[in-house]
Amino acid sequence: MDELLSKENLELREQTREIAERYVRPIAAELDRNAEYPWPVVRALQEAGLMGVWIPKEYGGRGAGILNLCIVVEELSKACGGVGVTYAVNALGSFPIIVGGTDEQKKKYLPELASGRKLIAFGLSEKSAGSDAGSLRTRATKDGNSYLINGEKKWNTNGGAADIYTVFTTVNPERGSRGITGILVEKGTPGFVIGKKEDLMGIRCVPVHELHFEDCRVPTENVLGGKEGHGFKHAMMTLDLARPGVAAQAVGLAQGALDLAIDYTTKREQFGQTIASFQAIQFMLADMATQIEAARQLVYQAARACDLGAKNVSKFAAMAKVFATDTAMSVTTNCVQLFGGYGYCRDYPIEKYMRDAKITQIYEGTNQVQRLVIGRALIKESASSREGKETKE
Ligand SMILES: Cc1cc2nc3c(=O)[nH]c(=O)nc-3n(C[C@H](O)[C@H](O)[C@H](O)COP(=O)(O)OP(=O)(O)OC[C@H]3O[C@@H](n4cnc5c(N)ncnc54)[C@H](O)[C@@H]3O)c2cc1C
């Protein structure tokens, strides 16, 4: 349904598709095998001016918003889910600056991120603080004109590759989420060490590391928004804007897997005919294509809602994430099934799609947590509509 997209959407999609086919698809299996960072792809994206599509124009980006971010992520993920997140994580890391940074922080960091000269990561999760991110323990203590950070972060996507880290700390654990404070930490700051690299099931080309902080001193001007205690709000606003991107990664993975499955089933012959000529197979292809299209339209609508600054984006972003990522998991699993035994070995690219898809149901808030977000929003909406009716009566 290209008619539903703008000229800019279509141009960005075409530009990214060319990069994905030229630079990503030929090396996707090798990147996965060697768990190598896709530098040639990132350089191609930099040269094409695609690294900061979501960053406002006044800070050197394309100002093209969340829908265009989703379109780029989807196209990259069709060829490799790992490359999709390698790109999208820069949006996740930079959204806290966009939604909560001071003007000085925006001027200092966003132009370098927009050009792709610098990369960024988002550090919220810890070993004991995953779904319950508000219970994080990494401590920031004020010391004159600086803060000392002590603690560790788990699961930092882009760890090691990034130059800037948005790190969520607490200035006072007794205040719970109201003590959480975002701090921008630059690579190379004394006391900041990139720790263990995770050996992942999928998305293996993006490095995911632990981060360690030991008396890591950062100036007070690096406190996000210049104020203590606003970090949790910034992190949640960030996740609302970033979840359509994960959902787009899932749509890309599902579409990429379905494209391979259509190609395979129209060539593979059993019982003297292509397996695609069996109605049972056609029904599977039809169901998958329908689910993917439904997921895509929900993701694009959630992205449009973000771009318009709609009030209920949390609910829409969570719905898009749940639906698209559950779709990606079921579609990629079914595509492996359509390859039969060949789907289960690494000679064919299809099993990688299933491994890459799994993480989309887990990170940026598990799908159970997304369902909580949706459920709570529904209850709140119902309560306020009841209140509205009572006031009228
Ligand atoms: C590859 C990878 C990359 C990541 N990248 C980043 C990153 O860049 N930055 C970052 O900050 N984090 C990152 N994460 C962390 C990710 O967001 C967390 O793993 C995720 O939020 C879940 O936290 P957890 O792993 O501690 O699981 P837990 O919170 O321990 O959850 C375990 C299970 O319990 C369920 N559960 C928990 N609470 C509830 C509840 N209230 N109701 C119902 N079910 C519940 C969960 O859904 C899950 O199924 C990454 C994780 C991975 C694996």
Brief summary:
The protein is α+β, with helices and mostly antiparallel strands and 393 residues long. It contains eleven helices and nine strands.
**DSSP summary: helix tally:** 11
- Uncertain segments: none
Number of domains: 3
Number of strands: 9
Largest sheet data: 4 strands, antiparallel
Alpha-carbon distance between the two ends: 45 Å
Look at the structure and give the mean pLDDT.
97
Gyration radius, rounded: 22 Å
Main sheet: strand order:
2-3-7-6
CATH superfamily of the largest domain: Butyryl-CoA Dehydrogenase, subunit A, domain 3
Query: In percent, how much strand structure appears in the residues?
Result: 5-15%
Share of helix, binned: 40-55%
Helix and strand succession? HHHHHHEEEEEEEHEEHHHH
CATH topology of the largest domain, anyone?
Answer: Butyryl-CoA Dehydrogenase, subunit A, domain 3
Question: Which ions and ligands are bound to the chains?
Answer: flavin-adenine dinucleotide
Shape: globular
What is the structural class?
Answer: alpha+beta
